[in-house]
UniProtKB/TrEMBL annotation:
<keyword id="KW-0285">Flavoprotein</keyword>
<dbReference type="InterPro" id="IPR006089">
    <property type="entry name" value="Acyl-CoA_DH_CS"/>
</dbReference>
<feature type="domain" description="Acyl-CoA dehydrogenase/oxidase N-terminal">
    <location>
        <begin position="7"/>
        <end position="118"/>
    </location>
</feature>
<dbReference type="InterPro" id="IPR046373">
    <property type="entry name" value="Acyl-CoA_Oxase/DH_mid-dom_sf"/>
</dbReference>
<protein>
    <submittedName>
        <fullName>Acyl-CoA dehydrogenase</fullName>
    </submittedName>
</protein>
<dbReference type="Pfam" id="PF00441">
    <property type="entry name" value="Acyl-CoA_dh_1"/>
</dbReference>
<dbReference type="InterPro" id="IPR006091">
    <property type="entry name" value="Acyl-CoA_Oxase/DH_mid-dom"/>
</dbReference>
<dbReference type="GO" id="GO:0050660">
    <property type="term" value="F:flavin adenine dinucleotide binding"/>
</dbReference>
<keyword id="KW-0274">FAD</keyword>
<dbReference type="InterPro" id="IPR009075">
    <property type="entry name" value="AcylCo_DH/oxidase_C"/>
</dbReference>
<dbReference type="InterPro" id="IPR009100">
    <property type="entry name" value="AcylCoA_DH/oxidase_NM_dom_sf"/>
</dbReference>
<feature type="domain" description="Acyl-CoA oxidase/dehydrogenase middle">
    <location>
        <begin position="122"/>
        <end position="222"/>
    </location>
</feature>
<dbReference type="InterPro" id="IPR036250">
    <property type="entry name" value="AcylCo_DH-like_C"/>
</dbReference>
<dbReference type="InterPro" id="IPR013786">
    <property type="entry name" value="AcylCoA_DH/ox_N"/>
</dbReference>
<dbReference type="Pfam" id="PF02770">
    <property type="entry name" value="Acyl-CoA_dh_M"/>
</dbReference>
<dbReference type="InterPro" id="IPR037069">
    <property type="entry name" value="AcylCoA_DH/ox_N_sf"/>
</dbReference>
<comment type="similarity">
    <text>Belongs to the acyl-CoA dehydrogenase family.</text>
</comment>
Length: 386
Protein backbone atom coordinates (compact mmCIF):
# COMPACT_ATOMS: atom_id res chain seq x y z
CA UNK A 1 0.00 0.00 0.00
CA UNK A 2 1.53 3.26 -1.15
CA UNK A 3 -0.60 6.38 -1.22
CA UNK A 4 2.01 8.42 -3.08
CA UNK A 5 1.42 9.12 -6.77
CA UNK A 6 3.68 7.10 -9.07
CA UNK A 7 6.30 9.23 -10.90
CA UNK A 8 4.32 9.39 -14.17
CA UNK A 9 1.21 10.75 -12.43
CA UNK A 10 3.26 13.13 -10.28
CA UNK A 11 4.77 14.49 -13.49
CA UNK A 12 1.25 14.96 -14.93
CA UNK A 13 0.16 16.68 -11.71
CA UNK A 14 3.08 19.11 -11.85
CA UNK A 15 2.48 19.88 -15.54
CA UNK A 16 -1.21 20.68 -14.97
CA UNK A 17 -0.39 22.64 -11.78
CA UNK A 18 2.04 24.80 -13.76
CA UNK A 19 -0.46 25.27 -16.60
CA UNK A 20 -3.20 26.25 -14.15
CA UNK A 21 -0.98 28.86 -12.49
CA UNK A 22 0.78 30.23 -15.57
CA UNK A 23 -1.99 30.11 -18.17
CA UNK A 24 -5.41 29.75 -16.47
CA UNK A 25 -5.01 31.92 -13.36
CA UNK A 26 -3.98 35.19 -15.09
CA UNK A 27 -6.81 35.06 -17.66
CA UNK A 28 -9.81 33.20 -16.29
CA UNK A 29 -11.18 36.00 -14.09
CA UNK A 30 -11.90 38.16 -17.17
CA UNK A 31 -13.65 35.33 -19.03
CA UNK A 32 -15.67 34.65 -15.90
CA UNK A 33 -16.73 38.29 -15.55
CA UNK A 34 -17.75 38.39 -19.22
CA UNK A 35 -19.51 34.97 -18.98
CA UNK A 36 -17.40 33.92 -21.96
CA UNK A 37 -16.17 30.47 -22.95
CA UNK A 38 -12.33 30.44 -22.81
CA UNK A 39 -11.58 28.94 -26.24
CA UNK A 40 -7.85 29.72 -26.16
CA UNK A 41 -7.39 27.97 -22.79
CA UNK A 42 -9.48 24.96 -23.87
CA UNK A 43 -7.47 24.73 -27.11
CA UNK A 44 -4.28 24.62 -25.06
CA UNK A 45 -5.75 21.91 -22.80
CA UNK A 46 -6.46 19.95 -25.97
CA UNK A 47 -2.88 20.37 -27.17
CA UNK A 48 -1.66 19.05 -23.80
CA UNK A 49 -3.71 15.89 -24.36
CA UNK A 50 -5.96 16.43 -21.32
CA UNK A 51 -9.17 15.51 -23.21
CA UNK A 52 -7.60 12.20 -24.21
CA UNK A 53 -6.22 11.26 -20.79
CA UNK A 54 -8.23 8.08 -20.04
CA UNK A 55 -8.49 6.78 -23.62
CA UNK A 56 -6.23 4.37 -25.51
CA UNK A 57 -3.69 5.74 -27.96
CA UNK A 58 -5.33 3.93 -30.89
CA UNK A 59 -8.24 6.41 -30.60
CA UNK A 60 -5.99 9.43 -30.16
CA UNK A 61 -5.90 9.24 -26.36
CA UNK A 62 -3.00 9.39 -23.92
CA UNK A 63 -3.34 5.79 -22.73
CA UNK A 64 -4.03 6.81 -19.11
CA UNK A 65 -7.02 6.08 -16.92
CA UNK A 66 -9.59 7.66 -14.61
CA UNK A 67 -6.93 8.25 -11.98
CA UNK A 68 -4.95 10.41 -14.39
CA UNK A 69 -8.11 12.34 -15.26
CA UNK A 70 -8.80 12.92 -11.54
CA UNK A 71 -5.27 14.21 -10.95
CA UNK A 72 -5.63 16.70 -13.82
CA UNK A 73 -9.11 17.83 -12.72
CA UNK A 74 -7.97 18.39 -9.15
CA UNK A 75 -5.07 20.61 -10.23
CA UNK A 76 -7.23 22.64 -12.62
CA UNK A 77 -9.99 23.15 -10.06
CA UNK A 78 -7.45 24.36 -7.47
CA UNK A 79 -7.33 27.43 -9.69
CA UNK A 80 -10.61 27.45 -11.62
CA UNK A 81 -13.69 25.25 -11.88
CA UNK A 82 -15.07 26.47 -15.23
CA UNK A 83 -12.16 25.01 -17.17
CA UNK A 84 -12.17 21.93 -14.94
CA UNK A 85 -15.87 21.21 -15.59
CA UNK A 86 -15.35 21.75 -19.32
CA UNK A 87 -12.74 18.99 -19.19
CA UNK A 88 -14.80 16.78 -16.86
CA UNK A 89 -17.95 16.97 -18.98
CA UNK A 90 -16.02 16.69 -22.25
CA UNK A 91 -14.33 13.48 -21.11
CA UNK A 92 -16.74 11.78 -18.67
CA UNK A 93 -20.03 12.74 -20.32
CA UNK A 94 -19.00 13.55 -23.91
CA UNK A 95 -16.39 11.02 -24.99
CA UNK A 96 -16.68 8.25 -22.38
CA UNK A 97 -20.16 6.97 -23.43
CA UNK A 98 -18.85 6.57 -26.98
CA UNK A 99 -15.75 4.77 -25.75
CA UNK A 100 -17.69 2.49 -23.37
CA UNK A 101 -20.72 1.68 -25.53
CA UNK A 102 -19.95 2.76 -29.11
CA UNK A 103 -19.35 0.55 -32.12
CA UNK A 104 -15.85 0.49 -33.59
CA UNK A 105 -17.08 2.81 -36.34
CA UNK A 106 -18.53 5.33 -33.85
CA UNK A 107 -15.29 5.29 -31.85
CA UNK A 108 -13.17 5.89 -34.97
CA UNK A 109 -15.53 8.62 -36.16
CA UNK A 110 -15.63 10.64 -32.92
CA UNK A 111 -12.91 9.78 -30.42
CA UNK A 112 -9.77 11.15 -32.15
CA UNK A 113 -11.30 14.65 -32.44
CA UNK A 114 -12.79 14.50 -28.93
CA UNK A 115 -9.44 13.38 -27.49
CA UNK A 116 -7.54 16.20 -29.20
CA UNK A 117 -10.00 18.84 -27.96
CA UNK A 118 -10.81 19.79 -31.56
CA UNK A 119 -14.42 18.87 -30.69
CA UNK A 120 -16.34 18.80 -27.42
CA UNK A 121 -19.00 16.22 -26.63
CA UNK A 122 -21.99 16.60 -24.31
CA UNK A 123 -24.48 14.28 -22.62
CA UNK A 124 -28.16 15.24 -22.47
CA UNK A 125 -30.01 13.42 -19.73
CA UNK A 126 -31.70 16.09 -17.60
CA UNK A 127 -35.07 17.46 -18.71
CA UNK A 128 -37.07 20.47 -17.52
CA UNK A 129 -39.43 18.18 -15.57
CA UNK A 130 -36.73 16.23 -13.76
CA UNK A 131 -33.07 15.34 -13.36
CA UNK A 132 -32.81 13.07 -10.31
CA UNK A 133 -35.62 10.85 -11.60
CA UNK A 134 -33.99 10.20 -14.95
CA UNK A 135 -36.29 7.23 -15.57
CA UNK A 136 -39.05 9.80 -16.11
CA UNK A 137 -37.48 10.88 -19.42
CA UNK A 138 -40.07 12.38 -21.77
CA UNK A 139 -37.92 12.87 -24.87
CA UNK A 140 -38.88 10.27 -27.46
CA UNK A 141 -37.11 8.66 -30.41
CA UNK A 142 -39.10 6.73 -32.99
CA UNK A 143 -37.45 4.57 -35.63
CA UNK A 144 -38.72 5.52 -39.10
CA UNK A 145 -38.27 2.18 -40.85
CA UNK A 146 -38.86 3.74 -44.26
CA UNK A 147 -35.76 5.95 -44.01
CA UNK A 148 -33.95 3.95 -41.30
CA UNK A 149 -33.67 7.05 -39.12
CA UNK A 150 -34.45 7.96 -35.50
CA UNK A 151 -36.91 10.82 -35.20
CA UNK A 152 -36.27 12.64 -31.90
CA UNK A 153 -38.62 15.02 -30.08
CA UNK A 154 -38.19 16.63 -26.67
CA UNK A 155 -36.24 19.09 -24.53
CA UNK A 156 -33.11 18.72 -22.41
CA UNK A 157 -31.94 21.31 -19.91
CA UNK A 158 -28.72 22.36 -18.15
CA UNK A 159 -26.47 20.54 -20.66
CA UNK A 160 -22.75 21.31 -20.25
CA UNK A 161 -20.57 21.92 -23.37
CA UNK A 162 -23.61 21.67 -25.65
CA UNK A 163 -23.51 25.04 -27.40
CA UNK A 164 -19.89 26.03 -27.97
CA UNK A 165 -18.41 26.67 -31.44
CA UNK A 166 -16.52 23.39 -31.10
CA UNK A 167 -19.36 21.20 -29.80
CA UNK A 168 -19.50 18.20 -32.14
CA UNK A 169 -22.26 16.08 -30.66
CA UNK A 170 -24.72 15.56 -27.86
CA UNK A 171 -25.65 12.05 -26.77
CA UNK A 172 -29.30 12.21 -25.71
CA UNK A 173 -31.38 9.76 -23.76
CA UNK A 174 -34.83 9.13 -25.20
CA UNK A 175 -37.74 6.73 -24.78
CA UNK A 176 -37.66 4.32 -27.72
CA UNK A 177 -40.50 2.03 -26.66
CA UNK A 178 -42.23 0.32 -23.71
CA UNK A 179 -41.60 -2.99 -21.97
CA UNK A 180 -44.42 -5.56 -21.62
CA UNK A 181 -45.10 -4.03 -18.16
CA UNK A 182 -45.43 -0.58 -19.76
CA UNK A 183 -42.14 0.78 -18.44
CA UNK A 184 -40.16 3.11 -20.75
CA UNK A 185 -37.29 1.63 -22.75
CA UNK A 186 -34.62 4.31 -22.72
CA UNK A 187 -31.87 4.44 -25.32
CA UNK A 188 -28.91 6.74 -26.00
CA UNK A 189 -28.59 8.34 -29.42
CA UNK A 190 -25.78 10.49 -30.84
CA UNK A 191 -27.02 13.78 -32.31
CA UNK A 192 -24.34 15.72 -34.22
CA UNK A 193 -24.38 19.52 -33.78
CA UNK A 194 -26.13 21.30 -36.60
CA UNK A 195 -28.64 18.50 -37.31
CA UNK A 196 -31.84 20.17 -38.62
CA UNK A 197 -34.48 20.57 -35.90
CA UNK A 198 -31.86 20.48 -33.11
CA UNK A 199 -31.77 23.93 -31.50
CA UNK A 200 -29.50 25.22 -28.79
CA UNK A 201 -30.81 28.04 -26.58
CA UNK A 202 -28.63 30.99 -25.50
CA UNK A 203 -26.36 30.22 -22.54
CA UNK A 204 -28.04 30.38 -19.10
CA UNK A 205 -27.13 33.15 -16.70
CA UNK A 206 -25.64 31.09 -13.85
CA UNK A 207 -24.53 31.71 -10.26
CA UNK A 208 -21.15 30.09 -10.96
CA UNK A 209 -19.14 28.14 -13.58
CA UNK A 210 -19.55 31.32 -15.61
CA UNK A 211 -16.80 30.53 -18.10
CA UNK A 212 -18.34 27.15 -18.91
CA UNK A 213 -21.12 26.48 -21.42
CA UNK A 214 -24.57 25.32 -20.22
CA UNK A 215 -27.66 25.28 -22.48
CA UNK A 216 -31.20 24.11 -22.99
CA UNK A 217 -31.62 21.92 -26.07
CA UNK A 218 -34.76 21.34 -28.17
CA UNK A 219 -35.38 18.49 -30.56
CA UNK A 220 -38.14 19.00 -33.06
CA UNK A 221 -38.49 16.01 -35.41
CA UNK A 222 -34.71 15.68 -35.43
CA UNK A 223 -33.64 12.89 -37.79
CA UNK A 224 -30.39 10.97 -37.38
CA UNK A 225 -29.32 7.65 -38.96
CA UNK A 226 -30.39 4.46 -37.12
CA UNK A 227 -26.65 3.75 -36.79
CA UNK A 228 -26.37 6.68 -34.32
CA UNK A 229 -27.87 4.49 -31.59
CA UNK A 230 -25.24 4.16 -28.85
CA UNK A 231 -25.12 0.62 -27.48
CA UNK A 232 -28.20 -1.54 -27.45
CA UNK A 233 -31.74 -0.23 -27.83
CA UNK A 234 -33.42 -0.09 -24.40
CA UNK A 235 -30.09 -0.19 -22.48
CA UNK A 236 -29.72 3.59 -22.15
CA UNK A 237 -30.76 3.63 -18.48
CA UNK A 238 -28.11 1.09 -17.45
CA UNK A 239 -25.54 2.91 -19.58
CA UNK A 240 -26.03 6.31 -18.03
CA UNK A 241 -26.02 4.84 -14.51
CA UNK A 242 -22.54 3.50 -15.28
CA UNK A 243 -21.45 6.80 -16.84
CA UNK A 244 -22.72 8.75 -13.82
CA UNK A 245 -21.01 6.39 -11.34
CA UNK A 246 -17.69 7.06 -13.06
CA UNK A 247 -18.42 10.75 -13.51
CA UNK A 248 -18.92 11.11 -9.75
CA UNK A 249 -15.28 10.19 -9.18
CA UNK A 250 -14.25 12.94 -11.58
CA UNK A 251 -16.56 15.47 -9.91
CA UNK A 252 -15.16 14.41 -6.52
CA UNK A 253 -11.62 15.09 -7.77
CA UNK A 254 -12.78 18.48 -9.06
CA UNK A 255 -14.44 19.29 -5.71
CA UNK A 256 -11.25 18.28 -3.89
CA UNK A 257 -9.32 20.69 -6.10
CA UNK A 258 -11.68 23.54 -5.27
CA UNK A 259 -11.40 22.73 -1.55
CA UNK A 260 -7.60 22.71 -1.80
CA UNK A 261 -7.61 25.95 -3.77
CA UNK A 262 -9.49 27.54 -0.86
CA UNK A 263 -6.71 26.40 1.49
CA UNK A 264 -4.00 27.76 -0.86
CA UNK A 265 -5.67 31.17 -1.11
CA UNK A 266 -6.39 31.32 2.65
CA UNK A 267 -2.83 30.49 3.68
CA UNK A 268 -1.47 33.15 1.34
CA UNK A 269 -3.97 35.82 2.45
CA UNK A 270 -3.75 35.06 6.17
CA UNK A 271 0.01 35.67 6.10
CA UNK A 272 -0.30 38.92 4.12
CA UNK A 273 -3.28 40.55 5.79
CA UNK A 274 -2.63 42.45 9.01
CA UNK A 275 -5.14 43.33 11.74
CA UNK A 276 -4.43 44.60 15.25
CA UNK A 277 -0.75 44.99 14.34
CA UNK A 278 -0.03 41.42 13.24
CA UNK A 279 -0.85 39.02 10.40
CA UNK A 280 -4.32 37.51 10.82
CA UNK A 281 -2.54 34.12 10.54
CA UNK A 282 -1.17 34.74 14.04
CA UNK A 283 -4.68 34.20 15.46
CA UNK A 284 -5.37 30.65 16.50
CA UNK A 285 -8.98 31.01 15.35
CA UNK A 286 -7.71 31.55 11.78
CA UNK A 287 -5.04 28.82 12.08
CA UNK A 288 -7.61 26.27 13.28
CA UNK A 289 -10.04 27.18 10.55
CA UNK A 290 -7.37 26.63 7.87
CA UNK A 291 -6.16 23.43 9.57
CA UNK A 292 -9.71 22.07 9.39
CA UNK A 293 -9.96 23.10 5.73
CA UNK A 294 -6.73 21.24 4.96
CA UNK A 295 -7.97 18.15 6.85
CA UNK A 296 -11.15 18.10 4.75
CA UNK A 297 -9.34 18.54 1.42
CA UNK A 298 -6.88 15.78 2.32
CA UNK A 299 -9.66 13.35 3.32
CA UNK A 300 -11.62 14.14 0.15
CA UNK A 301 -8.51 13.36 -1.92
CA UNK A 302 -8.17 9.95 -0.25
CA UNK A 303 -11.85 9.26 -0.97
CA UNK A 304 -11.76 10.01 -4.73
CA UNK A 305 -8.45 8.20 -5.16
CA UNK A 306 -9.88 5.13 -3.41
CA UNK A 307 -12.94 5.11 -5.69
CA UNK A 308 -10.76 5.62 -8.80
CA UNK A 309 -8.42 2.78 -7.77
CA UNK A 310 -11.39 0.44 -7.41
CA UNK A 311 -12.77 1.44 -10.80
CA UNK A 312 -9.41 0.84 -12.48
CA UNK A 313 -8.97 -2.51 -10.73
CA UNK A 314 -12.37 -3.61 -12.07
CA UNK A 315 -13.82 -3.84 -8.56
CA UNK A 316 -17.26 -2.58 -7.46
CA UNK A 317 -16.98 1.17 -6.86
CA UNK A 318 -20.56 2.52 -6.83
CA UNK A 319 -20.68 3.16 -3.07
CA UNK A 320 -17.16 4.60 -2.89
CA UNK A 321 -17.87 6.94 -5.83
CA UNK A 322 -21.06 8.19 -4.12
CA UNK A 323 -19.21 8.62 -0.79
CA UNK A 324 -16.41 10.55 -2.49
CA UNK A 325 -18.84 12.79 -4.38
CA UNK A 326 -21.01 13.45 -1.33
CA UNK A 327 -18.09 14.19 0.97
CA UNK A 328 -15.97 16.25 -1.40
CA UNK A 329 -18.86 18.44 -2.56
CA UNK A 330 -19.96 19.06 1.05
CA UNK A 331 -16.49 20.10 2.16
CA UNK A 332 -15.91 22.14 -1.00
CA UNK A 333 -18.86 24.32 0.05
CA UNK A 334 -17.52 24.43 3.65
CA UNK A 335 -14.03 25.44 2.53
CA UNK A 336 -15.33 28.05 0.08
CA UNK A 337 -17.45 29.64 2.84
CA UNK A 338 -14.53 29.61 5.31
CA UNK A 339 -12.02 30.94 2.76
CA UNK A 340 -14.38 33.81 1.97
CA UNK A 341 -14.71 34.57 5.69
CA UNK A 342 -10.93 34.63 6.10
CA UNK A 343 -10.72 37.16 3.26
CA UNK A 344 -13.20 39.49 5.00
CA UNK A 345 -14.72 42.10 2.67
CA UNK A 346 -12.24 41.25 -0.10
CA UNK A 347 -13.71 37.75 -0.15
CA UNK A 348 -16.92 39.29 -1.45
CA UNK A 349 -15.14 40.98 -4.36
CA UNK A 350 -15.15 39.08 -7.64
CA UNK A 351 -11.53 39.92 -8.37
CA UNK A 352 -10.48 37.55 -5.57
CA UNK A 353 -10.33 33.86 -6.58
CA UNK A 354 -12.14 32.81 -3.37
CA UNK A 355 -15.24 34.73 -4.47
CA UNK A 356 -15.26 32.67 -7.67
CA UNK A 357 -14.69 29.49 -5.66
CA UNK A 358 -17.61 30.32 -3.40
CA UNK A 359 -19.93 30.80 -6.36
CA UNK A 360 -18.60 27.66 -8.07
CA UNK A 361 -18.88 25.39 -5.03
CA UNK A 362 -22.67 25.08 -4.64
CA UNK A 363 -23.30 23.31 -7.96
CA UNK A 364 -21.02 20.48 -6.78
CA UNK A 365 -23.79 19.42 -4.37
CA UNK A 366 -26.28 19.33 -7.28
CA UNK A 367 -24.70 18.27 -10.60
CA UNK A 368 -24.19 14.60 -11.60
CA UNK A 369 -26.51 13.53 -8.80
CA UNK A 370 -27.54 15.70 -5.86
CA UNK A 371 -26.30 15.02 -2.31
CA UNK A 372 -29.69 13.45 -1.56
CA UNK A 373 -29.26 11.10 -4.52
CA UNK A 374 -25.78 10.14 -3.24
CA UNK A 375 -27.28 9.31 0.16
CA UNK A 376 -29.95 7.20 -1.55
CA UNK A 377 -27.23 5.29 -3.44
CA UNK A 378 -25.15 4.74 -0.30
CA UNK A 379 -28.22 3.56 1.65
CA UNK A 380 -29.07 1.15 -1.17
CA UNK A 381 -25.51 -0.22 -1.21
CA UNK A 382 -25.77 -0.74 2.56
CA UNK A 383 -28.85 -2.87 1.99
CA UNK A 384 -31.20 -0.39 3.62
CA UNK A 385 -33.48 -0.21 0.58
CA UNK A 386 -35.14 -3.30 -0.81
C1 LIG B 1 -24.49 24.03 -14.28
C2 LIG B 1 -25.16 22.70 -14.49
C3 LIG B 1 -24.62 21.80 -15.40
C4 LIG B 1 -25.28 20.59 -15.65
N1 LIG B 1 -24.80 19.74 -16.64
C5 LIG B 1 -25.56 18.66 -17.02
C6 LIG B 1 -25.19 17.87 -18.16
O1 LIG B 1 -24.16 18.10 -18.81
N2 LIG B 1 -26.01 16.85 -18.52
C7 LIG B 1 -27.15 16.55 -17.84
O2 LIG B 1 -27.86 15.63 -18.24
N3 LIG B 1 -27.51 17.27 -16.73
C8 LIG B 1 -26.75 18.32 -16.32
N4 LIG B 1 -27.11 19.07 -15.23
C9 LIG B 1 -28.34 18.71 -14.50
C10 LIG B 1 -28.08 18.16 -13.10
O3 LIG B 1 -27.49 16.90 -13.17
C11 LIG B 1 -29.43 18.17 -12.39
O4 LIG B 1 -29.77 19.51 -12.12
C12 LIG B 1 -29.41 17.37 -11.10
O5 LIG B 1 -29.25 16.00 -11.36
C13 LIG B 1 -30.70 17.56 -10.28
O6 LIG B 1 -31.82 17.42 -11.06
P1 LIG B 1 -32.96 18.55 -11.02
O7 LIG B 1 -32.30 19.86 -11.23
O8 LIG B 1 -34.01 18.17 -11.98
O9 LIG B 1 -33.52 18.50 -9.55
P2 LIG B 1 -34.72 17.56 -9.02
O10 LIG B 1 -34.49 16.16 -9.45
O11 LIG B 1 -36.01 18.18 -9.39
O12 LIG B 1 -34.52 17.67 -7.45
C14 LIG B 1 -34.92 18.81 -6.70
C15 LIG B 1 -34.54 18.55 -5.24
O13 LIG B 1 -35.28 17.43 -4.74
C16 LIG B 1 -34.39 16.45 -4.21
N5 LIG B 1 -34.94 15.11 -4.43
C17 LIG B 1 -35.40 14.59 -5.60
N6 LIG B 1 -35.82 13.32 -5.41
C18 LIG B 1 -35.61 13.04 -4.09
C19 LIG B 1 -35.82 11.89 -3.27
N7 LIG B 1 -36.34 10.76 -3.77
N8 LIG B 1 -35.49 11.96 -1.96
C20 LIG B 1 -34.96 13.10 -1.44
N9 LIG B 1 -34.72 14.22 -2.16
C21 LIG B 1 -35.05 14.18 -3.48
C22 LIG B 1 -33.08 16.68 -4.97
O14 LIG B 1 -31.98 16.12 -4.27
C23 LIG B 1 -33.07 18.19 -5.05
O15 LIG B 1 -32.60 18.71 -3.82
C24 LIG B 1 -26.45 20.26 -14.93
C25 LIG B 1 -26.97 21.15 -13.98
C26 LIG B 1 -26.34 22.37 -13.78
C27 LIG B 1 -26.97 23.33 -12.79
Amino acid sequence: MDHKLPEELEQLRRTVEEFAHDVVAPKIGDYYERHEFPYEIVREMGRMGLFGLPFPEEYGGMGGDYFALGVALEELARVDSSVAITLEAGVSLGAMPIYRFGTEEQKRQWLPRLCSGELLGAFGLTEPDGGSDAGATKTTARLDERTNEWVINGTKCFITNSGTDITGLVTVTAVTGRTDEGKPRISSIIVPSGTPGFTVAPAYSKVGWNASDTRELSFDDVRVPAANLLGEEGRGYAQFLRILDEGRIAIAALATGLAQGCVDESVRYAKERHAFGRPIAANQAIQFKIADMEMKAHTARLAWRDAASRLIAGEPFKKEAALAKLYSSTIAVDNARDATQIHGGYGFMNEYPVARMWRDSKILEIGEGTSEVQRMLIARELGLVS
